[in-house]
Design a protein that fits this description.
The protein contains ten helices and no strands. With 205 residues, it is mainly α. It has two domains: 168 residues; 35 residues. α1 runs antiparallel to α2 and α4 crosses α5. The longest helix is centred in the last third of the chain and has 31 residues.
Length: 205
């Protein structure tokens, strides 16, 4: 949907006075949001037992990779016209560009190896490789913080969310959240059982 809206506005010449900057922002933001949603799937399953969300994790990651690739193509193609010298200067002299390039470089192999075939080929190494998504998310937030020069509240908010989602993966915290979920489920079943018992003793006339 963000891509469709961007193309629609582009064709109608309805972007801002700086269309390249607008296109850069409108591909980078969805990449970050989708990356955060990818990280949120496992903690949501741990906290609330939402196992049905697990199959969405792969697609969220792929769409995050897609928007990251589009973000990069706008940067190197529209902004710098595929000029290698200018790109080298921009990437290695602007810290936000270097960090963003590193995040995109990490996401590329993750997207390529997201298929079941690659899971079979890499075996245990597949999980180790895909744990790099945590580093990619941190780098993406740093990229956003360094890119924004004035009001950094929004990128810091994303940074806080990423830290929480990564923190919930720490084994002691994950076990504690799982215990709370089981306790909440037990209490809910206990209340339902007592309520049914009261109805049997005092049936509604």
């Amino acid at each position: 949907m963000p891509l469709g809206l961007l193309l629609w506005d582009w064709l109608r010449d309805n972007l801002t006075v700086n269309p390249i900057q607008d296109a850069t922002a409108r591909t980078g933001k969805p990449a970050l949001v989708l990356l955060v949603l990818t990280l949120a799937v496992t903690p949501l399953n741990t906290a609330f037992g939402l196992g049905r969300l697990i199959p969405l994790r792969r697609w969220l990651g792929l769409y995050a990779g897609l928007y990251a690739a589009l973000h990069f193509m706008v940067f190197i193609g529209l902004d710098y016209g595929f000029n290698i010298d200018l790109l080298r200067e921009a990437i290695f002299e602007k810290r936000f560009a270097l960090v963003g390039f590193a995040a995109g470089t990490i996401l590329l192999p993750l997207a390529i190896t997201s298929t079941k075939g690659w899971m079979r080929r890499l075996k245990r190494g597949w999980k180790r490789l895909h744990r790099l998504v945590y580093l990619a998310a941190i780098l993406a937030v740093v990229h956003y913080v360094w890119l924004v020069k004035s009001d950094i509240r929004e990128p810091l908010f994303y940074g806080l969310v990423v830290l929480i989602l990564l923190g919930l993966r720490i084994p002691p915290l994950r076990r504690a959240v799982s215990r709370l979920r089981r306790l909440r489920k037990w209490m809910s079943l206990e209340l339902q059982s007592r309520f049914r018992g009261q109805q049997e003793i005092h049936p509604t006339p």
